[in-house]
Structure formats: C-alpha cells, structure tokens
C-alpha cells in the first residue's frame, strides 16, 4: 500500500458519526440488511472509472467500512438498467456486495463478524422499485439517465471481539470486482489517521 497524505473529509466524519450511532443501536440491528434508493448520482469527488474510495473507522470493538465506487467498476455500466440482462447484472452485483466475507478478510483471531450491510445506488433503486409505466414515460426516464455517472455505496458494520488481533485487513474485493483497479483509503483507528492507495497487487490494509 502506497501511503498518501490523508484529507479527513466529510464522508469519513459522517462514517464516524454513523459508527457511533450504530454502537448505541447495535442490538436492534444484528444481521439486518438494508437497501436504500438514494439518488447518489455523483457522490465521488472525482468520478474516475477503475478507482473507488474506501473509508474505514475502528472505534472500540466496532468497525465500519464504506465503499464508494462508480457503478461501472462493480456492474460494468452506469446507466439505469432497463433490459432483463442489465437488471440481472445489477442484482448479481448487489448479491456480491452483500457477501462481506468474500470482500474483506480479517485475522481469525480478531473474531470479526458482520452486523449490517447497507447498499445505496440509483441502479439498485431502478431494479428493486421499478413500476409499470406507459411507454412514453419509460422512454423519457431512460433517456434522462443515458449519460448519467451513477455511483454505488456499500456500508458495512462489523463487531470484532479481539481488536488487539486486528492488525490487518486483506481486500478480496478486487477479485470479486476486477474492473476495480485502485482503492483510495481513508481510515481512522485508535492508532490515528492513515490514507493510501490499494490495488490487486497491494491489497493489505495494515494498522
């Protein structure tokens, strides 16, 4: 991992607040999975194919990870799906994103378990909440998003029973989503703040 200067932006701050709130409400959401239809068309600061943001906060035994990526990296396109084939690709990406153990590998001694996954994207909204429209309306809706740069956000909350053993995280995400070539890391842990670039060849986050 090549270290970069860390700019602790609003997204990481928001993630920290989210983790703090989750700690107070942990028992009410164990194992719960959410899919929201927020219209995050351009949430990334710089929309670049092949590049995604990975934000991480470790507080006590709670670990929060947030992935922000252009939809192209995870699905292969960014327009709203209209064909059955496109919708199938979106559903496949959603299923893969929910498999946190296939994306993030923790030391076994750390005892990390997934509590919650939350997925957000206009593409997910289009698949899950599609309604039958008349032909004219459907055509106009698709046309408006033909050139949209839609993003995908995935939020993960874990609990680790032995944080002292959590000295690294191996990212398997590159294997699940090979169109993702680089992750820009921002992290807050008890040891401080860190940032860096991760790639398929350098896929370890070390604390």
From TrEMBL:
<keyword id="KW-0732">Signal</keyword>
<feature type="compositionally biased region" description="Basic and acidic residues">
    <location>
        <begin position="28"/>
        <end position="42"/>
    </location>
</feature>
<protein>
    <submittedName>
        <fullName>DUF2796 domain-containing protein</fullName>
    </submittedName>
</protein>
<feature type="region of interest" description="Disordered">
    <location>
        <begin position="25"/>
        <end position="46"/>
    </location>
</feature>
<dbReference type="Pfam" id="PF10986">
    <property type="entry name" value="ZrgA"/>
</dbReference>
<feature type="signal peptide">
    <location>
        <begin position="1"/>
        <end position="21"/>
    </location>
</feature>
<dbReference type="InterPro" id="IPR021253">
    <property type="entry name" value="ZrgA-like"/>
</dbReference>
């Amino acid at each position: 991992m090549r270290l970069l200067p860390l700019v602790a932006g609003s997204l990481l701050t928001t993630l920290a607040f989210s983790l703090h709130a989750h700690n107070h409400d942990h028992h009410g959401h164990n194992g719960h999975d959410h899919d929201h239809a927020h219209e995050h068309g351009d949430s990334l600061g710089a929309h670049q194919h092949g590049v995604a943001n990975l934000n991480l906060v470790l507080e006590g035994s709670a670990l929060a990870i947030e992935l922000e990526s252009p939809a192209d990296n995870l699905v292969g396109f960014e327009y709203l799906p209209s064909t059955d084939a496109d919708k199938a690709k979106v559903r496949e990406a959603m299923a893969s994103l929910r498999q946190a153990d296939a994306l993030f590998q923790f030391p076994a001694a750390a005892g990390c378990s997934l509590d919650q996954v939350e997925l957000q994207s206009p593409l997910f909204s289009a698949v899950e909440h599609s309604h039958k429209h008349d032909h004219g309306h459907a055509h106009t809706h698709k046309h408006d998003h033909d050139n949209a740069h839609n993003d995908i956000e995935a939020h993960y909350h874990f609990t680790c029973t032995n944080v002292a053993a959590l000295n690294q995280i191996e990212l398997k995400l590159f294997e699940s989503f090979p169109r993702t070539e680089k992750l820009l890391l921002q992290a807050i842990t008890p040891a401080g703040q860190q940032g860096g670039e991760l790639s398929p060849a350098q896929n370890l986050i070390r604390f």
